[in-house]
Amino acid sequence: QTGQKGWQLASGGVNPSAIDYMTETMYTACCLTFTVYKSPVRTTPTGSNTQGNTPMDVSTWLCNKDSENNNNATSTSFVYTISRKRSSGFSETMRQLSNSSVSSNGPSEDFFKRLAGITDGGGNFDIRNTNGERVLRAIRMKTHNRDMRMLTHMQNQTHFGRIHAVRNKPYSQYIVSTYPEMRYLITKTNGTMRTRIKGFKESCDYVNIQFKEADYEIPANDPYTAGTVDTDGSITFNYNGNRIECSTEFRTNEYSKRTCLDYVIPGAKPYMTERSHRSGRVEKHSITFKFQSVQNMMPIYEYFMANRTYSDMKFYRVSKMKPFIEIRKYKTTPGGSPENRVYARFTLDWIRYQNPQWTKVAWTSKVLDKDMVQEFNEK
Predict the structure, then answer these.
(1) How far is 258 from 215, CA to CA, in rounded Å?
(2) What is the pairing mode between strands 243-251 and 233-238?
(3) Which residue, among 188, 172, 192, 170, has the nearest Cα to 180 in the 3D structure?
(4) Triad 363, 369, 371: Cα angle to 5°
(5) Containing H/E element for 230?
(6) What region does 52 belong to: left with phi over 0, alpha with psi -120 to 50, or beta?
(7) Taking the domain 109-206, which CATH number applies?
(8) 178 touches 105 (CB < 8 A)
């Protein structure tokens, strides 16, 4: 039965390395440990054709697939790294994968909606003047090295592009630079881009595609917003307000001012602010949408359980919203009491995850006592 299920997944077009990126990469080779019979023709070592059914090792089929990582051949020594913690059952991410709509013809529609959000948040259309003409050289998406799995997931879904580390900076880029691949991405995201419209319109002209304007009132549970949070958003802890907040940011332009996030997370409405800041000698302007009330926490949690971020750090933080609601009342209990220590450990674990500079966060000194300093130094 396991073999039949594995073959159904493979023959149905499911990418054999579309895996649980929260518990490390896991190949589906473990469920393809069976022999596939290929008919009706086989090739003998001498090259002559012989009728009949020929056994084919599935590892050969998997190794002949293009690698999901910069087209390097996949080794026959299949990686089988199910997390020890989750080996007794399926993870939350695997459950989402099994429930998602996977098309045999390529990535799902939701993937491209999210990709539009990723591009609006941290993408770039590299358009240059070449021999008097405007030429689209590449489409790029940039993220912090901590969140590189976002880039590898895009590469795994599209089966093209390359990942390039930015020299002397803690960032990496996913780069698509061939005409057919750029045209494919532009076609698939046309009608869902909302803020980087100037470059996107020019890119549409370059690949001879008519630009489609998106609905700037983003509908409920649309994955677009998860993409913007992945690249240019944040999940933060407001110690004074005793709540976990979610925000996303866009460059200020005529299109971002029209963008409406009032309905994308049912039951939660963001507060919008405009701000200016200097980066070197350049003054930058941006619009921030922030979900910043206690009542917003459960709707935010439910939204990201359905549209998880590719950033493990942000997903970890948002996944703690529900248990935090249960213990946030302990903040005002006497210092050193069992309840207060439960609150302190929870918030410190929350801020420490994939954050090497957690000790520089101002509020941590308010919840750390001498015993806890020693406890966290030993971890």
Answers:
(1) 10
(2) antiparallel
(3) 188
(4) 140
(5) helix 224-232
(6) left
(7) 3.10.28.10
(8) no
Amino acid present at 30: C
Residues 288 and 290: their CA atoms lie apart, in Å, by 6
Nearest to 183 by CA among 134, 125, 109: 125
Q: How far is CA 169 from CA 119, 144, 153, in A?
A: 20, 9, 21
Q: What is the DSSP letter of 260?
A: B
Distance CA 242, CA 313 (A): 20
The helix (run of H) or strand (run of E) holding residue 2 is helix 2-11
Q: In 3D, which of 202, 256, 200 has the Cα closest to residue 228?
A: 256
- Which of 197-228 are b and which e, b meaning 16 or more Cβ less than 10 Å from the residue's Cβ? bebbeebbebbeeeeeebeeebeebbbbbbbb
Q: Cα(164)–Cα(144) distance, rounded to whole angstroms?
A: 12
Query: In terms of C-beta density within 10 A (0-12 exposed, 13-18 middle, 19 or more buried), how is residue 143 classed?
Result: buried
Q: CA–CA separation, 247 vs 296, rounded Å?
A: 12
Tell me, what's the pLDDT at 378? 59
Q: Which token pair is 232?
A: 């240019």
Amino acid at site 160: F
Residue-by-residue pLDDT tens, the chain, 379 positions: 444 444 444 444 444 444 444 444 444 444 444 434 333 443 334 444 444 443 444 433 444 444 444 544 443 333 333 333 333 343 444 444 444 433 446 789 999 999 999 999 999 999 999 999 999 999 999 999 999 999 999 999 999 999 999 999 999 999 999 999 999 999 999 999 999 999 999 999 999 999 999 999 999 999 999 999 999 999 999 999 999 999 999 999 999 999 999 999 999 999 999 988 777 778 888 999 999 999 999 999 999 999 999 999 999 999 999 999 999 999 999 988 999 999 999 999 999 999 999 989 988 888 877 666 556 665 5
Q: Give the rounded distance of the alpha carbon of 17 from its chain centre.
A: 16
Tell me the C-alpha distance between 286 and 252, whole Å.
5
